[in-house]
Amino acid sequence: MTVLQHDDGVSSVWRPLDAAEAWQLKRAYGDDAVYTAGSTLLRTQWEAGTARIPRHMVDLSRIASFQGIRRQQHEVIVGSMATLAELRRNPDIHAMFPLLTEAARNIAAPSIRNLATIGGNIGSLIGDTIPALVIYEAELIWFDGQQPAAQPILDWLESLDSPSSSERLLMQIRLPFPISDSPDGSTEASEYRPIAFYQKVGRREVFTPSVVTVAMQALLDETGRFTEVRLAAAGGQTRAARLERAESVLLDRELTPDLLAELYPVILDEYSPKGDPFASADYRKSTAANIIAAELWTAWNQRTWKE
């Protein structure tokens, strides 16, 4: 482990070689220490005065198990230190998880994406990759001082108010293969028509938190009925969540204009964003409902099934 001394307000930068060392340092220094990855968000917070410069920084960049993106038998493993630029360029992510590629493309400028990591984006709690990860039912691999443990991303989002959640260290993100991309060559999903989109709406596309971010993945059978639906929304300071009531309206129903008319008020009622001086909660609600309705209307206009 390397220790660097600084005189710019940070007493020490610690560079551990494994998760156990990093966790022990954070445990020892408590609130006087922060984990750092690309540090892009931290620098923004320090410059804005919304976070204090810590006495100790625990740099995770030398931990080998946190690096890279690799394909395994039934899943893709993304290290928490993988940059957003790596995420965007990776062929397996692009082929099997295109909404995640699109999410990475919509975050900040290229110079920032070269430094910013997916772990930092998730750690912000409102990162733009999170809705896509929710749609793909990702699992987060944490280190709690003893051993790695997997947690579905939705369970993590629901546990954020728990004090123990802040003591863990994110190691990796596990993405299970979609059915049609299984290593055994299964084509079970090939007869179905997919609907997938990721939309981020903001005052400026990449330099500010989004007003609304919506992600959806669904399958239609040969009659135009939804056989699978996953729909998530976030934006601003609102944490990502599945819109389960909206999903239930669509599931096992044929995509029609009447169905979209039924869906719209459900989204307005279910999605609960936080307003701010730039966009009210009602504006965010209507924006999310409009995005979803417009995307599904496009899918209906491109339908191939018989009415």
TrEMBL record:
Domain of life assignment: Bacteria
InterPro entries, A to Z: CO_DH_flav_C, CO_DH_flav_C_dom_sf, Diverse_Substr_Oxidored, FAD-bd_PCMH, FAD-bd_PCMH-like_sf, FAD-bd_PCMH_sub2, Mopterin_DH_FAD-bd
Key word Ribonucleoprotein present: no
EC number: 1.2.7.4
The keyword Flavoprotein is annotated on this UniProt entry: yes
Coiled coil: none
TM spans (from-to): none
Keyword annotations from UniProtKB, A to Z: FAD, Flavoprotein, Oxidoreductase
GO molecular function: anaerobic carbon-monoxide dehydrogenase activity; FAD binding
Residue ranges constituting the FAD-binding PCMH-type domain according to the UniProt record: 6-180
Pfam annotation, one family: FAD_binding_5
Protein name: Carbon-monoxide dehydrogenase medium subunit
